[in-house]
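During the second year of the project, the team shifted from modelling isolated chains to modelling whole assemblies. The rationale, set out in the original proposal, was that interfaces cannot be judged from single-chain predictions alone. As a representative example for this report, we include one of the complexes processed in the last quarter. Its constituent sequences, exactly as entered into the pipeline, are reproduced here:
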Amino acid sequence: MLRVERLRKRYDSGGRRDDAGHLAVDGVSFQVPDGKMYTLLGPSGCGKTTTLRCVAGLETPSDGTISLGGSVLYDAADDINVAPNRRQLGMVFQSYAIWPHMTVAQNVSYPLRIGGRAQRVPKAQVRERVEAALAAVHLEGYEDRRATALSGGQQQRLALARALIARPRMLLLDEPLSNLDAKLRESMRLELKRLQRESGITSLYVTHDQVEALAMSNVVAVMKDGQIVQEGSPVEIYKSPVNAFVADFIGSANLLDGTVRSTQAGDCCVVEVGGGLLYAQPSPASPELRSGQEVLIAMRPECITIEGRDDAQPPAADTPGWLEGIVRNRAFLGESVEHEVEIAGSVVRTRGMDIQPRGIGEHVWLRVRGEDSRIVPTG
Amino acid sequence: MGVISSRWGRIAGILIAAVVLPPVLVVVLSGFNAQMLGAGFTFTVDAWQAVFSNTRSLSAIITSFLLTVRVPIGLAIAFAFAWALIRLDIPCKRTIEYGLWFAFFVPTLPLMLGWILLLDGNYGIIATAAPFLDLEIYSFTGILWVHLTASTIPVIVIFLRPALQHLDVGLEEAALLHGATRWQVWRTVTLPLVAPAVATAFLAGMIKGLEVFEIEQILGLPAGIQVFSTRIFALLAWDPPIYGEAMALSTIFLALMILAAVVYVRFAARRGETPTIGLKGRVAQLPPRDALAWLFFAAIAFYFLIGLLLPLAMVVMGSFSRLFGFFDLANPLTLSHWADVLRAEAFSRAIRTSVFVGLGVAGIGTVVYGLLGWAMCRAPSRSRSWWLVGVLVWIPWAVPGILLGVAYLMIFLNAPFVRHYHGTIVPMIVVLLVMTMPLAVAMLQSAAGQIPREFEEAGLMAGASRLATLRTVTLPLMAPMMVSVFLFALMQTLRDISATVLLATPSTRTLPLLMFSYASGGRLEAASVVGVIIAVTALIITVAVLKMARRLGFET
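Output from the structure prediction step:
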């Protein structure tokens, strides 16, 4: 189990008086259970990579503790800071960091050939393990190629083989898929997940891509401004964002201003937005709601159904869950169709498998179910 | 990564300051000191009064500046050459490139000897064949001509080419598509984008152009032309040497150079900001080889033929001539000068000294500057001590060789602890190390900068210690550039006259100093022999450096 507690990292200003430095990680705490994949997700500059590099030992934190399986890697109070080469971690870098002056076999066997005498592995065994490691990432037969002759996807798999060959205590992945093209990224996502599951290695994954995070992780932590704002399973993060930032960052939520009209104990409320009334669920993080309160409603585009005026029976006036609007824009995306519908001055995006696009300017009804719209704090 | 802390920056800063600042301090303080360095300090302004009451010292500085008129001339020609080499399909590009680098490496003195054979008013082949042209090498224009052809043009072409090469043609194409004519594109897009690079090359040429010594010493002396460096040399040649005035004069010059260097750094920094130089820049597609390409080829070939090959051929001939310049004797050719030189004790000593000094400078320089360049790359970007290291490293660049030589001479003559090294090769190694520092560090820093930090971090994460990572990852990747720097430092030893001329004793002369002493003693045939040997070595080193550069993936 990796345990990170109250981790802080401040970049100092290099002695310049006019600059107090920059707090990249601000009191982050989390745990990664053995064998699980834990993902730090957030926009660039949120501190996720710095956190990972602190775990790796490539950055020295300013405060906090980091321990792995009971042994302390970093402790500010006791002045413990284990050197990165003694932490027994494997890491896949964003750029793969495949050494161009070595062959594929030399790259992958490096962790077995280097380090103290005690760590080194006998030659015959090195060969065996190199073959096994390359086979695991489907690079068998490439041993003697120059590493630079590999394609991006192959380099990425080589980096993974190199990170795993020494059987590290934990695997760190720093945006490993971001340099691949879209199609390759998709297949590598599955490949990575398979390797992680098969090897059962505890993994810390950093990405800014919410699809990657949701698809691969056991637990996702969304970060902003050096802090974790929400931690949970992919489904929890997706279904119950604790605030507007998470709702917007995970998927592309529609955010509408509204006023609470009636509350029912613990369950759905009725909220008035421009264009109509909606049922909405309070987020676990939002405090008690009362009638008349200004709130923000998050709705996922794929949870909104679009109905032509003529298709459906127009609902009775003021029926919650129906909004009236005009189609302003549309886009055919292949597997789905997106519409932008104007509702009393604000624009709501919908995404549906309904291949028949609506005409621009057409009057439509939008239907939103109560469990699909969520009241989030505005923070 | 906290590999390189500010603490190391402070240590490096102190060490570099210890070799870079004393020369400057010695120069400035000695101008105000009535006593010798180390004997105490008695304030005086006598030396300064002497400088200002003696027109020869001040006019030497003015002449130094007048001679830099070759820089704008050379810049115009070099710009055209560089532009044509990048944008036109010129034949024999590879050969031209080798020629440029050879011209960069070969010392000027042998070429000058060639020009003496051609343009000496009494026996020069061209001068006597065309007396109506009234050509005379021992003159202001003679000095200008030798510098312009032998160094100014090739050096500026080499400086300019990378900047022009990385100009993204997309920027020009965008202007074309918006309806600009070719001339408008050139005026409104191209020129403003390359202007900082041109200005930087211009200032670099000016600064380097003010430092020259040996050409002025040999060609200027008979004509009564003195520049700053030769004036210093003359003041120190008195018995006893007039140190005070030399130092006061040096202080004035140093102030001017530092002013120029500050302007240069400003320009260089601004050039770094322009968006023209980026890896994404698309290099121009060459148009088909047309008349213009052939015209430029002819111009460049003409330059090489006249500016480089002709004087080189002459100096080879000069080395075989019975009497320098007199090819119409009954039996004009002889091997005796080669035999004399090769048999001379002075020559074998010069070879030995050159090898020891050269290997010392190249070996120490490559290792120390390699580590320094790497550390500067890996240092925290906001560290003030590392910023200071970056500044200190460039100081020798603005200090003329003769001035470094004088300062170190005074230090090695008078300062305790180092005094007993005077007369050995140690002072020469030190001064050449200081002289090569700016460029060598810059070259190695750029090589280290091309190694992504993640390569080293991947080594650490794989379990390698910092030292093992340096050895197995960083060093192999920097190796080609380190070899280049090694050869560059070696070549510096085989070129330099100004910095070492005052530090060498007759028993510790390097090859160029031997050549210089032959030439200034009137033994021009013997000087030619040594000149040919140095030129051939330069050719070998040029080829080796370019091969290395290719391996490194630099298109030079």
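The first strand of chain A starts at residue 2 and ends at 11. Chain A has a mean pLDDT of 87.
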